[in-house]
Amino acid sequence: MGETTCYILDNGAYTAKVGFCNMEPKIVPNCIMKAKSERRRPFIGSQIDECRDASGLFYILPFQKGFLINWDTQKTVWDYIFSKECCPVNFSETPLIITEPLFNFASIQEAMTEIFFEEYECQSLLRINATDLADYHYRKLNNNECTLVVDSGYSYTYIVPYIKGKKYKEGIRRIDVGGKVLTNHLKEVLSYRQLNVMEESYVINQVKEDSCFVSLDFMKDMELARQKGYLRDIVKADEELEQQTLRLNNERFAIPELLFRPADVGIPQMGIPESIIHSIDSCPEEAKEGLLQNIVLFGGDTLFPGFRERVYNSVRALALDHFDVNVTLAENPITYPWEGGKLLFRDPEFYSFCMTKEEYEEEGKALAFERFDI
């Protein structure tokens, strides 16, 4: 492959987006799963498609609360990703861009650098935040100076202002609500109201993704839910069903509402629109207008129907009248940072951001901390 291509791994807490920059990325679950019916066999990454019984599937995750802590699990998933079964790579010929969380712990950064240089024998490495790649992607397409990146993923939601391509750290806000909190809350609500689904993380996650939406008028939707009832007609008791039916009523919009009102589940934080305004208010005066005009949303939670419109309506209501507000939902909210990595590789400055194996052997981890501004 030579240096004409680059291997990009957007290593999310729920899915890894991976591939060479001259191909389409693969989306691989970043976990090992085990099924109650097939206890002996772990399903790694996309092997989950081979599982015959999705009920009772449980996840073994490398990430907890947004940080990589289970190295054995992560290493198993990486070995699968880099193998012939998924997306094979020779790191001695191909530079690697890998993402890591904002404010990542020094010990995790060190371990990551070490694994890729020493175990995978990577020749050229760039560790970077997914939000940096999202900002780069947006700037390349829009030629703007300021971007407000909203990353609403599995573990949390981050709001990150960028001024001339640099993170403005005083403006970063984190909300401890992401896809995992929503799925867990849906499990609790359904278990309380209907049927014990506490062991059904995989199935309920699918239910959430297929059925939930963000309300644009919560009280009106509550009234509608009261009058009209359920997602599908309730089956009469005498009709035989092979499967159990879950009835979804106001859960469909009350679950994603937690992104806008974390206090509803006892998390004493602001919702996304208030956090956006709070973040912008802590930035330099001259950047505020540009940030409001360039809000970009990505991450799995932004796929809920109504998400962009709700963020826009709420931010518009909170912002000063004489400022324009523009909210863009990434074309593909899952692969948006990965696509940013693809654009970054074409940047003439690309190699100046990277660290080589040679530099690592000469100067060690200290240079990695200097080079990668996480």
Structural write-up:
- By secondary structure, this protein is α+β, with helices and mostly antiparallel strands.
- The protein folds into 3 domains: 2-130 and 335-371, Nucleotidyltransferase, domain 5 (2-Layer Sandwich); 134-178 and 267-329, 2-Layer Sandwich (Nucleotidyltransferase, domain 5), CATH 3.30.420; 179-259, ATPase, substrate binding domain, subdomain 4 (Actin, Chain A, domain 4).
- The chain contains 14 helices and 17 strands.
- It has helices at 71-81, 106-119, 130-142, 179-193, 201-211, 218-228, 251-254, 272-281, 285-293, 307-318, 336-345, 350-353, 357-363, 365-371; strands at residues 7-11, 15-20, 26-29, 32-34, 42-44, 58-60, 63-64, 67-68, 96-100, 124-129, 146-152, 157-163, 166-167, 173-175, 295-298, 327-329, 355-356.
- The strands form 4 sheets. Strands 3-2-1-9-10-17 form a 6-stranded mixed sheet, with helices on both faces. Strands 11, 12, 13, 14, 15 and 16 form a 6-stranded mixed sheet that branches. It has a 3-stranded antiparallel sheet with strand order 5-4-6, with helices on one face.
- α4 (179-193) packs across α5 and α8 packs across α10.
- The longest helix has 15 residues, at 179-193.
- Belongs to the actin family. ARP6 subfamily.
